[in-house]
Design brief:
By secondary structure, the chain is of the alpha/beta class. The chain is built from 15 helices and 13 strands.
Length: 490
Protein backbone atom coordinates (compact mmCIF):
# COMPACT_ATOMS: atom_id res chain seq x y z
CA UNK A 1 0.00 0.00 0.00
CA UNK A 2 1.18 3.52 -0.84
CA UNK A 3 0.53 6.10 1.89
CA UNK A 4 -0.95 9.34 0.57
CA UNK A 5 -1.43 12.66 2.39
CA UNK A 6 -4.97 13.96 3.05
CA UNK A 7 -6.74 15.30 -0.03
CA UNK A 8 -6.52 19.07 -0.51
CA UNK A 9 -8.38 21.66 -2.56
CA UNK A 10 -8.33 21.37 -6.38
CA UNK A 11 -4.99 22.14 -7.97
CA UNK A 12 -4.14 25.16 -10.07
CA UNK A 13 -3.06 25.10 -13.71
CA UNK A 14 0.65 25.48 -14.33
CA UNK A 15 2.18 28.32 -16.32
CA UNK A 16 5.18 27.81 -18.58
CA UNK A 17 5.65 31.51 -19.39
CA UNK A 18 8.82 31.90 -17.33
CA UNK A 19 10.39 28.53 -18.18
CA UNK A 20 13.66 28.92 -20.18
CA UNK A 21 13.99 27.24 -23.57
CA UNK A 22 16.31 24.41 -22.46
CA UNK A 23 13.80 23.30 -19.84
CA UNK A 24 10.90 23.74 -22.26
CA UNK A 25 12.70 21.48 -24.72
CA UNK A 26 13.09 18.85 -22.01
CA UNK A 27 9.40 19.13 -21.10
CA UNK A 28 8.46 18.57 -24.75
CA UNK A 29 10.69 15.50 -24.87
CA UNK A 30 9.10 14.16 -21.67
CA UNK A 31 5.66 14.75 -23.19
CA UNK A 32 6.72 12.76 -26.23
CA UNK A 33 8.03 9.91 -24.06
CA UNK A 34 5.15 9.61 -21.60
CA UNK A 35 2.06 10.53 -23.62
CA UNK A 36 -0.21 7.69 -24.79
CA UNK A 37 -2.56 8.72 -27.60
CA UNK A 38 -5.89 7.16 -28.57
CA UNK A 39 -4.37 4.99 -31.30
CA UNK A 40 -1.86 3.49 -28.87
CA UNK A 41 -4.58 2.90 -26.25
CA UNK A 42 -6.60 0.95 -28.82
CA UNK A 43 -3.55 -1.03 -29.96
CA UNK A 44 -2.71 -1.97 -26.35
CA UNK A 45 -6.34 -2.96 -25.67
CA UNK A 46 -6.65 -5.18 -28.76
CA UNK A 47 -3.48 -7.04 -27.79
CA UNK A 48 -4.77 -7.24 -24.22
CA UNK A 49 -7.94 -9.07 -25.39
CA UNK A 50 -5.82 -11.67 -27.21
CA UNK A 51 -3.61 -12.16 -24.16
CA UNK A 52 -6.64 -12.65 -21.87
CA UNK A 53 -7.84 -15.38 -24.24
CA UNK A 54 -4.41 -16.97 -24.36
CA UNK A 55 -4.24 -17.05 -20.57
CA UNK A 56 -7.45 -19.12 -20.44
CA UNK A 57 -6.12 -21.66 -22.94
CA UNK A 58 -4.48 -24.98 -22.06
CA UNK A 59 -1.13 -23.65 -23.27
CA UNK A 60 -1.46 -20.44 -21.23
CA UNK A 61 0.34 -17.13 -21.70
CA UNK A 62 1.97 -14.28 -19.81
CA UNK A 63 -1.29 -13.36 -18.05
CA UNK A 64 -2.03 -16.29 -15.68
CA UNK A 65 -5.87 -15.94 -15.75
CA UNK A 66 -6.19 -18.04 -12.61
CA UNK A 67 -9.51 -19.86 -11.99
CA UNK A 68 -10.50 -19.03 -8.40
CA UNK A 69 -13.23 -21.66 -7.80
CA UNK A 70 -15.59 -18.90 -6.76
CA UNK A 71 -18.58 -20.24 -8.67
CA UNK A 72 -20.99 -17.34 -8.92
CA UNK A 73 -22.02 -14.18 -7.11
CA UNK A 74 -23.61 -13.85 -3.66
CA UNK A 75 -27.38 -13.32 -3.66
CA UNK A 76 -27.27 -10.91 -0.71
CA UNK A 77 -28.84 -13.35 1.73
CA UNK A 78 -25.67 -15.05 3.01
CA UNK A 79 -25.55 -15.15 6.83
CA UNK A 80 -23.11 -16.03 9.60
CA UNK A 81 -19.94 -14.91 11.37
CA UNK A 82 -16.64 -15.14 9.49
CA UNK A 83 -13.01 -14.19 9.96
CA UNK A 84 -11.04 -12.55 7.17
CA UNK A 85 -7.28 -12.27 6.99
CA UNK A 86 -5.82 -9.71 4.59
CA UNK A 87 -2.11 -10.05 3.83
CA UNK A 88 -1.07 -7.03 1.79
CA UNK A 89 2.18 -5.30 0.97
CA UNK A 90 2.27 -3.04 4.04
CA UNK A 91 -0.18 -4.29 6.66
CA UNK A 92 -1.77 -7.47 7.91
CA UNK A 93 -5.45 -6.94 8.65
CA UNK A 94 -7.64 -9.27 10.67
CA UNK A 95 -11.43 -8.82 10.47
CA UNK A 96 -14.53 -10.40 11.89
CA UNK A 97 -17.53 -9.94 9.62
CA UNK A 98 -21.13 -10.66 10.55
CA UNK A 99 -23.52 -11.14 7.64
CA UNK A 100 -27.02 -10.49 9.05
CA UNK A 101 -30.37 -11.51 7.55
CA UNK A 102 -30.86 -8.10 5.89
CA UNK A 103 -29.97 -8.32 2.19
CA UNK A 104 -26.59 -6.85 1.24
CA UNK A 105 -25.72 -5.75 4.78
CA UNK A 106 -22.66 -6.52 6.92
CA UNK A 107 -21.02 -5.58 10.22
CA UNK A 108 -17.25 -5.55 10.63
CA UNK A 109 -14.65 -5.21 13.37
CA UNK A 110 -10.99 -5.19 12.44
CA UNK A 111 -7.42 -4.68 13.60
CA UNK A 112 -4.29 -3.84 11.60
CA UNK A 113 -0.81 -5.14 12.26
CA UNK A 114 2.30 -3.78 10.58
CA UNK A 115 4.02 -6.22 8.22
CA UNK A 116 7.69 -5.87 9.28
CA UNK A 117 10.11 -5.28 6.40
CA UNK A 118 12.45 -7.99 7.67
CA UNK A 119 9.67 -10.57 7.22
CA UNK A 120 9.37 -9.73 3.51
CA UNK A 121 12.79 -11.21 2.77
CA UNK A 122 13.03 -13.54 5.75
CA UNK A 123 12.20 -17.13 6.53
CA UNK A 124 8.96 -18.83 5.48
CA UNK A 125 8.18 -20.20 8.93
CA UNK A 126 8.66 -16.77 10.53
CA UNK A 127 6.04 -15.32 8.17
CA UNK A 128 3.33 -17.86 9.04
CA UNK A 129 4.18 -17.70 12.75
CA UNK A 130 3.75 -13.93 12.71
CA UNK A 131 0.40 -14.15 10.90
CA UNK A 132 -0.87 -16.77 13.35
CA UNK A 133 0.27 -14.62 16.30
CA UNK A 134 -1.72 -11.65 14.99
CA UNK A 135 -4.79 -13.84 14.47
CA UNK A 136 -4.48 -15.20 18.01
CA UNK A 137 -4.22 -11.68 19.49
CA UNK A 138 -7.33 -10.62 17.57
CA UNK A 139 -9.46 -13.59 18.66
CA UNK A 140 -8.38 -13.34 22.30
CA UNK A 141 -9.14 -9.61 22.40
CA UNK A 142 -12.51 -9.67 20.63
CA UNK A 143 -13.84 -12.95 22.04
CA UNK A 144 -12.52 -12.49 25.59
CA UNK A 145 -11.84 -16.18 26.11
CA UNK A 146 -9.20 -17.56 28.46
CA UNK A 147 -8.71 -20.80 26.55
CA UNK A 148 -9.20 -20.73 22.79
CA UNK A 149 -9.65 -24.50 22.70
CA UNK A 150 -12.85 -24.08 24.71
CA UNK A 151 -14.64 -22.14 21.94
CA UNK A 152 -17.77 -23.97 20.75
CA UNK A 153 -16.86 -24.23 17.08
CA UNK A 154 -14.20 -23.24 14.62
CA UNK A 155 -14.65 -19.89 12.90
CA UNK A 156 -14.59 -20.11 9.08
CA UNK A 157 -11.86 -17.91 7.63
CA UNK A 158 -11.35 -16.34 4.22
CA UNK A 159 -7.65 -15.64 3.66
CA UNK A 160 -6.88 -12.84 1.25
CA UNK A 161 -3.48 -13.82 -0.12
CA UNK A 162 -2.84 -11.10 -2.68
CA UNK A 163 -0.08 -12.74 -4.67
CA UNK A 164 -0.27 -14.76 -7.90
CA UNK A 165 -1.29 -18.31 -6.96
CA UNK A 166 -2.46 -21.34 -8.91
CA UNK A 167 -5.57 -22.85 -7.35
CA UNK A 168 -6.85 -26.32 -8.13
CA UNK A 169 -9.06 -25.83 -5.07
CA UNK A 170 -10.55 -22.75 -3.42
CA UNK A 171 -9.05 -23.69 -0.04
CA UNK A 172 -5.55 -24.23 -1.41
CA UNK A 173 -3.14 -22.19 -3.53
CA UNK A 174 0.37 -22.65 -4.94
CA UNK A 175 2.34 -19.40 -4.94
CA UNK A 176 3.52 -18.67 -8.48
CA UNK A 177 5.83 -15.79 -7.57
CA UNK A 178 6.21 -13.10 -4.96
CA UNK A 179 5.26 -9.51 -5.87
CA UNK A 180 4.92 -6.20 -3.95
CA UNK A 181 8.50 -6.31 -2.68
CA UNK A 182 8.26 -9.76 -1.04
CA UNK A 183 11.05 -12.26 -1.69
CA UNK A 184 10.77 -15.02 0.93
CA UNK A 185 12.65 -18.16 -0.04
CA UNK A 186 11.08 -21.59 0.05
CA UNK A 187 7.48 -20.53 -0.67
CA UNK A 188 7.30 -20.09 -4.46
CA UNK A 189 5.95 -23.27 -6.02
CA UNK A 190 4.52 -24.42 -2.67
CA UNK A 191 0.93 -24.72 -1.47
CA UNK A 192 0.58 -21.95 1.12
CA UNK A 193 -2.53 -23.45 2.78
CA UNK A 194 -0.77 -26.23 4.76
CA UNK A 195 2.02 -23.79 5.75
CA UNK A 196 -0.59 -21.44 7.21
CA UNK A 197 -2.67 -24.24 8.75
CA UNK A 198 0.40 -25.69 10.50
CA UNK A 199 0.93 -22.36 12.28
CA UNK A 200 -2.76 -22.32 13.29
CA UNK A 201 -2.59 -25.88 14.61
CA UNK A 202 0.56 -25.13 16.59
CA UNK A 203 -1.45 -22.55 18.57
CA UNK A 204 -4.66 -24.62 18.64
CA UNK A 205 -6.57 -21.69 17.16
CA UNK A 206 -10.32 -22.25 16.63
CA UNK A 207 -10.11 -21.33 12.96
CA UNK A 208 -10.84 -23.29 9.77
CA UNK A 209 -9.48 -22.08 6.42
CA UNK A 210 -12.54 -22.09 4.13
CA UNK A 211 -11.23 -20.07 1.19
CA UNK A 212 -7.94 -18.69 -0.06
CA UNK A 213 -8.65 -15.69 -2.24
CA UNK A 214 -7.01 -12.79 -4.02
CA UNK A 215 -7.96 -9.23 -3.03
CA UNK A 216 -9.15 -8.53 -6.57
CA UNK A 217 -11.56 -11.47 -6.56
CA UNK A 218 -12.77 -10.31 -3.16
CA UNK A 219 -13.31 -6.81 -4.57
CA UNK A 220 -15.45 -8.24 -7.37
CA UNK A 221 -17.61 -10.31 -4.98
CA UNK A 222 -17.96 -7.65 -2.25
CA UNK A 223 -18.86 -4.96 -4.78
CA UNK A 224 -21.48 -7.15 -6.46
CA UNK A 225 -22.95 -7.95 -3.03
CA UNK A 226 -24.00 -4.31 -2.61
CA UNK A 227 -24.42 -3.39 -6.32
CA UNK A 228 -25.44 -6.16 -8.71
CA UNK A 229 -24.38 -4.14 -11.77
CA UNK A 230 -20.71 -4.61 -10.77
CA UNK A 231 -19.14 -7.05 -13.24
CA UNK A 232 -15.41 -6.33 -12.89
CA UNK A 233 -13.26 -5.87 -9.80
CA UNK A 234 -9.98 -3.96 -10.05
CA UNK A 235 -7.06 -3.00 -7.85
CA UNK A 236 -4.96 0.06 -8.62
CA UNK A 237 -2.57 0.39 -5.71
CA UNK A 238 0.90 -0.94 -4.90
CA UNK A 239 0.18 -3.40 -7.72
CA UNK A 240 -2.57 -3.72 -10.35
CA UNK A 241 -5.01 -6.48 -11.20
CA UNK A 242 -8.58 -7.32 -12.23
CA UNK A 243 -11.09 -10.12 -11.77
CA UNK A 244 -14.34 -10.92 -13.58
CA UNK A 245 -16.86 -13.75 -13.93
CA UNK A 246 -16.26 -16.11 -16.85
CA UNK A 247 -18.27 -19.14 -18.07
CA UNK A 248 -16.60 -22.50 -17.43
CA UNK A 249 -17.10 -23.38 -21.10
CA UNK A 250 -14.86 -20.45 -22.08
CA UNK A 251 -11.94 -21.68 -19.96
CA UNK A 252 -10.28 -24.51 -21.93
CA UNK A 253 -7.69 -25.16 -19.22
CA UNK A 254 -10.38 -26.47 -16.83
CA UNK A 255 -12.28 -28.47 -19.48
CA UNK A 256 -11.12 -31.74 -17.89
CA UNK A 257 -13.30 -31.00 -14.85
CA UNK A 258 -16.32 -31.43 -17.15
CA UNK A 259 -18.25 -28.61 -15.48
CA UNK A 260 -21.47 -27.25 -17.00
CA UNK A 261 -20.32 -24.80 -19.73
CA UNK A 262 -22.65 -22.05 -18.50
CA UNK A 263 -21.55 -22.36 -14.86
CA UNK A 264 -19.86 -19.10 -13.76
CA UNK A 265 -16.33 -19.05 -12.36
CA UNK A 266 -14.43 -15.97 -11.21
CA UNK A 267 -11.12 -15.44 -12.98
CA UNK A 268 -8.28 -13.67 -11.20
CA UNK A 269 -6.43 -12.21 -14.18
CA UNK A 270 -3.12 -11.20 -12.53
CA UNK A 271 -2.71 -8.94 -15.54
CA UNK A 272 0.20 -7.00 -14.10
CA UNK A 273 2.12 -9.53 -16.23
CA UNK A 274 0.47 -8.29 -19.45
CA UNK A 275 2.89 -7.94 -22.37
CA UNK A 276 6.00 -9.28 -20.66
CA UNK A 277 7.07 -9.96 -24.27
CA UNK A 278 7.03 -6.16 -24.88
CA UNK A 279 4.94 -6.27 -28.04
CA UNK A 280 2.83 -3.12 -27.54
CA UNK A 281 3.63 -1.38 -24.25
CA UNK A 282 5.11 2.11 -24.83
CA UNK A 283 8.10 1.75 -22.51
CA UNK A 284 10.57 4.59 -21.96
CA UNK A 285 14.27 4.17 -21.10
CA UNK A 286 13.26 4.80 -17.48
CA UNK A 287 10.79 1.89 -17.52
CA UNK A 288 13.65 -0.28 -18.77
CA UNK A 289 15.83 0.76 -15.82
CA UNK A 290 13.04 -0.01 -13.33
CA UNK A 291 12.59 -3.46 -14.83
CA UNK A 292 16.31 -4.25 -14.98
CA UNK A 293 16.87 -3.18 -11.36
CA UNK A 294 13.80 -4.98 -10.00
CA UNK A 295 13.91 -8.32 -8.11
CA UNK A 296 12.14 -9.93 -11.10
CA UNK A 297 13.42 -8.48 -14.41
CA UNK A 298 11.22 -9.36 -17.38
CA UNK A 299 8.11 -9.91 -15.23
CA UNK A 300 5.10 -7.71 -14.41
CA UNK A 301 5.79 -5.40 -17.38
CA UNK A 302 2.37 -3.71 -17.27
CA UNK A 303 2.37 -3.32 -13.49
CA UNK A 304 5.75 -1.59 -13.54
CA UNK A 305 4.29 1.15 -15.76
CA UNK A 306 1.12 1.90 -13.80
CA UNK A 307 1.33 0.71 -10.18
CA UNK A 308 1.90 2.94 -7.18
CA UNK A 309 5.05 1.09 -6.18
CA UNK A 310 6.85 2.41 -9.29
CA UNK A 311 5.44 5.91 -10.00
CA UNK A 312 7.73 7.70 -7.56
CA UNK A 313 10.76 5.79 -8.79
CA UNK A 314 9.98 6.72 -12.41
CA UNK A 315 9.80 10.36 -11.36
CA UNK A 316 13.10 10.11 -9.46
CA UNK A 317 14.95 8.43 -12.33
CA UNK A 318 13.90 11.17 -14.77
CA UNK A 319 15.04 13.94 -12.42
CA UNK A 320 18.42 12.29 -11.86
CA UNK A 321 18.86 11.89 -15.62
CA UNK A 322 17.98 15.54 -16.24
CA UNK A 323 20.59 16.57 -13.66
CA UNK A 324 23.34 14.26 -14.91
CA UNK A 325 22.85 14.18 -18.66
CA UNK A 326 20.46 16.81 -19.96
CA UNK A 327 19.85 20.30 -18.62
CA UNK A 328 21.66 20.46 -15.31
CA UNK A 329 18.48 20.37 -13.23
CA UNK A 330 19.25 21.41 -9.61
CA UNK A 331 22.74 22.39 -10.81
CA UNK A 332 25.42 22.57 -8.11
CA UNK A 333 23.24 21.04 -5.40
CA UNK A 334 23.66 17.91 -3.29
CA UNK A 335 21.74 15.15 -5.09
CA UNK A 336 22.52 12.39 -2.59
CA UNK A 337 18.97 12.07 -1.25
CA UNK A 338 17.46 12.00 -4.74
CA UNK A 339 19.94 9.31 -5.80
CA UNK A 340 18.52 6.80 -3.30
CA UNK A 341 16.44 4.23 -5.17
CA UNK A 342 12.74 4.16 -4.22
CA UNK A 343 13.18 7.15 -1.90
CA UNK A 344 10.05 8.71 -3.45
CA UNK A 345 6.64 7.05 -3.59
CA UNK A 346 3.42 7.89 -5.40
CA UNK A 347 2.31 10.22 -2.62
CA UNK A 348 5.19 12.55 -3.56
CA UNK A 349 3.72 12.97 -7.05
CA UNK A 350 0.23 13.26 -5.59
CA UNK A 351 1.36 16.16 -3.39
CA UNK A 352 2.90 17.97 -6.37
CA UNK A 353 -0.21 17.56 -8.51
CA UNK A 354 -2.37 18.98 -5.73
CA UNK A 355 -0.23 22.08 -5.06
CA UNK A 356 -2.86 24.85 -5.36
CA UNK A 357 -0.46 27.80 -5.58
CA UNK A 358 0.61 29.54 -8.79
CA UNK A 359 4.21 29.76 -7.58
CA UNK A 360 4.22 26.06 -6.56
CA UNK A 361 5.36 27.07 -3.09
CA UNK A 362 4.20 23.82 -1.48
CA UNK A 363 6.13 21.80 -4.05
CA UNK A 364 9.22 23.90 -3.37
CA UNK A 365 8.86 23.27 0.37
CA UNK A 366 8.45 19.54 -0.31
CA UNK A 367 11.70 19.39 -2.30
CA UNK A 368 13.53 21.34 0.40
CA UNK A 369 12.21 19.20 3.25
CA UNK A 370 12.42 15.73 1.69
CA UNK A 371 15.37 16.08 -0.71
CA UNK A 372 17.32 19.12 0.58
CA UNK A 373 16.99 20.70 -2.88
CA UNK A 374 16.30 24.36 -3.56
CA UNK A 375 14.30 24.28 -6.80
CA UNK A 376 13.73 27.37 -8.96
CA UNK A 377 10.23 28.22 -10.23
CA UNK A 378 11.01 26.89 -13.76
CA UNK A 379 12.42 23.68 -12.26
CA UNK A 380 9.27 23.29 -10.19
CA UNK A 381 7.15 23.76 -13.33
CA UNK A 382 9.07 20.95 -15.02
CA UNK A 383 8.60 18.70 -11.98
CA UNK A 384 4.91 19.51 -11.92
CA UNK A 385 4.52 18.62 -15.60
CA UNK A 386 6.51 15.40 -15.14
CA UNK A 387 4.26 14.32 -12.25
CA UNK A 388 1.19 14.99 -14.42
CA UNK A 389 2.64 12.98 -17.30
CA UNK A 390 3.53 9.95 -15.16
CA UNK A 391 0.19 10.02 -13.31
CA UNK A 392 -1.78 10.46 -16.53
CA UNK A 393 0.04 7.66 -18.34
CA UNK A 394 -0.67 5.30 -15.42
CA UNK A 395 -4.40 6.12 -15.45
CA UNK A 396 -4.73 5.84 -19.23
CA UNK A 397 -2.91 2.51 -19.48
CA UNK A 398 -4.95 1.22 -16.51
CA UNK A 399 -8.10 1.74 -18.56
CA UNK A 400 -6.82 -0.68 -21.23
CA UNK A 401 -7.25 -3.69 -18.94
CA UNK A 402 -10.84 -2.74 -18.07
CA UNK A 403 -11.66 -2.07 -21.72
CA UNK A 404 -10.14 -5.42 -22.76
CA UNK A 405 -12.37 -7.37 -20.34
CA UNK A 406 -15.42 -5.44 -21.58
CA UNK A 407 -14.52 -6.26 -25.20
CA UNK A 408 -13.81 -9.93 -24.45
CA UNK A 409 -17.11 -10.40 -22.58
CA UNK A 410 -19.14 -8.10 -24.85
CA UNK A 411 -20.05 -5.97 -21.84
CA UNK A 412 -21.71 -2.81 -23.10
CA UNK A 413 -22.78 -1.40 -19.75
CA UNK A 414 -21.69 -2.14 -16.18
CA UNK A 415 -20.13 -0.79 -13.03
CA UNK A 416 -16.50 -1.62 -12.27
CA UNK A 417 -15.54 -1.81 -8.60
CA UNK A 418 -12.05 -0.41 -8.06
CA UNK A 419 -9.92 -0.25 -4.93
CA UNK A 420 -6.34 0.55 -4.04
CA UNK A 421 -4.47 3.62 -2.86
CA UNK A 422 -3.76 4.99 -6.35
CA UNK A 423 -7.39 4.78 -7.44
CA UNK A 424 -8.72 6.19 -4.18
CA UNK A 425 -6.18 8.91 -3.47
CA UNK A 426 -4.13 9.87 -6.53
CA UNK A 427 -5.53 13.16 -7.91
CA UNK A 428 -7.40 12.97 -11.24
CA UNK A 429 -6.75 9.22 -11.61
CA UNK A 430 -10.47 8.40 -11.95
CA UNK A 431 -11.18 11.20 -14.45
CA UNK A 432 -8.13 10.36 -16.57
CA UNK A 433 -9.04 6.68 -16.62
CA UNK A 434 -12.64 7.48 -17.58
CA UNK A 435 -11.46 9.68 -20.44
CA UNK A 436 -9.23 6.87 -21.72
CA UNK A 437 -12.16 4.42 -21.63
CA UNK A 438 -14.19 6.87 -23.77
CA UNK A 439 -11.37 7.01 -26.31
CA UNK A 440 -10.87 3.24 -26.44
CA UNK A 441 -14.55 2.25 -26.63
CA UNK A 442 -15.64 5.19 -28.85
CA UNK A 443 -18.55 6.34 -26.74
CA UNK A 444 -20.55 9.30 -28.09
CA UNK A 445 -19.90 12.70 -26.52
CA UNK A 446 -22.38 14.17 -24.07
CA UNK A 447 -23.90 10.89 -22.84
CA UNK A 448 -23.37 9.12 -19.53
CA UNK A 449 -20.50 6.62 -19.65
CA UNK A 450 -22.01 3.12 -20.00
CA UNK A 451 -19.04 1.58 -18.15
CA UNK A 452 -18.34 3.43 -14.93
CA UNK A 453 -15.39 2.75 -12.59
CA UNK A 454 -16.50 3.29 -9.00
CA UNK A 455 -15.15 2.86 -5.50
CA UNK A 456 -15.36 -0.80 -4.50
CA UNK A 457 -16.53 -2.42 -1.31
CA UNK A 458 -13.92 -3.91 1.02
CA UNK A 459 -12.76 -6.86 -1.07
CA UNK A 460 -10.02 -8.22 1.14
CA UNK A 461 -12.22 -8.16 4.26
CA UNK A 462 -15.91 -8.39 3.40
CA UNK A 463 -15.14 -10.09 0.08
CA UNK A 464 -13.09 -12.80 1.80
CA UNK A 465 -15.90 -13.42 4.29
CA UNK A 466 -18.49 -13.61 1.51
CA UNK A 467 -16.40 -16.11 -0.45
CA UNK A 468 -16.01 -18.24 2.68
CA UNK A 469 -19.82 -18.08 3.05
CA UNK A 470 -20.36 -18.98 -0.63
CA UNK A 471 -17.99 -21.95 -0.28
CA UNK A 472 -19.87 -23.31 2.74
CA UNK A 473 -23.18 -22.76 0.90
CA UNK A 474 -21.84 -24.82 -2.04
CA UNK A 475 -20.79 -27.67 0.26
CA UNK A 476 -24.30 -27.74 1.74
CA UNK A 477 -25.75 -27.88 -1.79
CA UNK A 478 -23.39 -30.69 -2.82
CA UNK A 479 -21.54 -28.58 -5.42
CA UNK A 480 -17.99 -29.58 -4.48
CA UNK A 481 -16.11 -28.46 -7.62
CA UNK A 482 -12.77 -27.01 -6.60
CA UNK A 483 -13.13 -27.65 -2.86
CA UNK A 484 -10.54 -29.95 -1.26
CA UNK A 485 -11.27 -30.14 2.48
CA UNK A 486 -15.00 -30.29 3.07
CA UNK A 487 -14.63 -31.84 6.52
CA UNK A 488 -15.98 -29.54 9.22
CA UNK A 489 -17.38 -27.04 6.71
CA UNK A 490 -20.99 -27.71 7.75
Amino acid sequence: MVDFPPRRKPSRKGSMADVPKDLLDQIKELERLFSVDQAKLKEVTEHFVKELEKGLSVEGGSIPMNPTWVMGYPDGYETGTFLALDMGGTNLRVCEIVLPEEKGEFEIIQSKYRMPDELKAGDSEELWEYIADCLQQFIEYHHEVEDLEQMDSKLPLGFTFSFPATQDYIDHGVLQRWTKGFDISGVEGKDVAPLFEAALEKRKLPVRLSALINDTTGTLIASHYTDDTMQIGCIFGTGCNAAYMENCGSVPKIAHYKLPPDMPIAINCEYGAFDNELVVLPRTPFDVIIDNDSPRPGQQAFEKMIAGLYLGELFRLVLVDLHDNKCGLFDGQDMSKLRRAYSLDASFLSFIEEDPFENLSETGELFAKELSLNASKPELELCRRLAELIGTRAARLSACGVAAICKKKNIESCHVGADGSVFNKYPHFKARGAQALREILDWPEGKRDPVSIRAAEDGSGVGAALIAALTIKRVKAGNLAGIKNTEGMI
